[in-house]
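Summary of Year 1 activities. Much of the first year was spent building the evaluation harness for sequence design. The harness presents a backbone, in tokenized form, and records the residue chosen at every position. We chose the following record to illustrate the format because it has been used consistently in internal testing since the harness was completed.
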């Protein structure tokens, strides 16, 4: 990609769409069966600066309208990922995936995984256990769906392990391409000291969306986020040479998204690399530093299990203490 043109409205020829307004208005302009992946984190009805707290029934029916339009705009082999946490009312929690699951099921979608996104930081509760996970509901439209597992494999814990008996004795027992990342993902959330933090109060990390983009799409496929916020989904999709569209209703967040895209185009947007492991206080020197997104360069798709030295060389980074 040489120069990124960000279109304010959808057209099938565009590469990137940043729509300022209500996602339903954008969705109504999208032809049936356009998007390969729809990934989003909707408002949780928590009275954040970008939402008005609604009666729960009203909230669910608003979500139903958006989900119904998304399903219409999804390709037959496509995936929808709804990233959600808890609705909290006076200390009582209602997991939103419980409330929203029936909407997807009634539309004929099939749940493939309920991915648990586990993170280390958040509010400290005193009258219940502190919440440290949210979920991603991954649905497909049909049984024949795109799933690139090899693109998101992670390193084997014991790569040298071999079969010790039977006909495969002496051969490596694990998949040489790495192991399935499972349905529990340990990824730091975007708190104040996170390299990706903007003024948006509820960003999700680029690496979370990257894994979904790599697993469920190929280059040139369309990725869509109806509740775009600070533009995270656009960045994760465009950096892997997918086409990407998103809607955001608040002008200040559209501005942030645009600024992030411009930085990415100049090779100046810093993100937490998905190859980086969760911080280990016992081995702080092993942490990979932030990497720069460069939308001007060819696709940056790499397998998660790739040797970290390749990453370090590419980024011109020298660490005094390297480990694999
Ligand atoms: C949880 S945030 C998403 C944050 C995003 N994942 C990120 O990484 O920045 C939800 C966003 O949806 C936006 N929003 C709420 N209602 C909307 C609507 N009807 N159409 C488009 N955007 C909407 C809010 O302004 C907010 O930025």
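For this record, the design step produced the sequence shown next.
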């Amino acid at each position: 990609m040489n120069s990124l043109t960000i279109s304010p409205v959808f057209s099938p020829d565009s590469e990137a769409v940043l729509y300022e307004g209500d996602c339903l208005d954008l969705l109504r302009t999208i032809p049936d069966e356009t998007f390969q992946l729809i990934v989003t984190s909707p408002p949780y009805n928590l009275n954040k600066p970008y939402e008005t707290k609604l009666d729960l029934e009203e909230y669910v029916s608003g979500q139903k309208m958006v989900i119904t339009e998304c399903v219409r705009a999804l390709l037959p082999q496509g995936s929808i990922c709804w990233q959600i946490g808890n609705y909290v009312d006076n200390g009582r929690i209602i997991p939103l995936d419980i409330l929203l699951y029936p909407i997807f099921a009634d539309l004929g979608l099939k749940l493939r995984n309920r991915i648990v996104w586990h993170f280390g930081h958040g509010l400290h509760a005193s009258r219940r256990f502190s919440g440290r996970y949210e979920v991603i509901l991954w649905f497909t439209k049909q049984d024949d769906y795109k799933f690139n597992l090899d693109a998101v494999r992670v390193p084997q814990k014991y790569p040298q392990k071999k079969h010790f008996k039977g006909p495969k004795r002496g051969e490596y027992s694990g998949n040489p391409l790495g192991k399935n990342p499972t349905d529990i993902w340990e990824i730091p959330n975007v708190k104040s000291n996170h390299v990706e933090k903007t003024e948006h109060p509820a960003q999700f990390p680029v690496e979370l969306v990257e894994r979904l983009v790599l697993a469920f799409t190929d280059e040139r496929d369309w990725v869509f986020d109806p509740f775009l916020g600070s533009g995270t989904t656009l960045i994760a999709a465009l950096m892997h040479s997918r086409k990407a569209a998103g809607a955001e209703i608040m002008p200040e967040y559209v501005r942030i998204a645009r600024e992030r895209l411009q930085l990415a185009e100049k090779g100046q947007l810093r993100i937490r690399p998905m190859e980086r492991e969760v911080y280990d206080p016992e081995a702080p020197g092993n942490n990979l530093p932030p990497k720069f997104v460069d939308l001007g360069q060819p696709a940056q798709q790499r397998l998660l299990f790739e040797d970290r030295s390749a990453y370090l060389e590419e980024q011109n980074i020298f660490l005094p203490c390297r480990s694999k």
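The pocket of S-adenosylmethionine is lined by residues 22-23, 41, 43, 50-51, 200, 202-204, 227, 229-230, 232, 247-250, 253 (CB under 6 Å). Quantitative recovery figures across the full test set are reported in Table 2.
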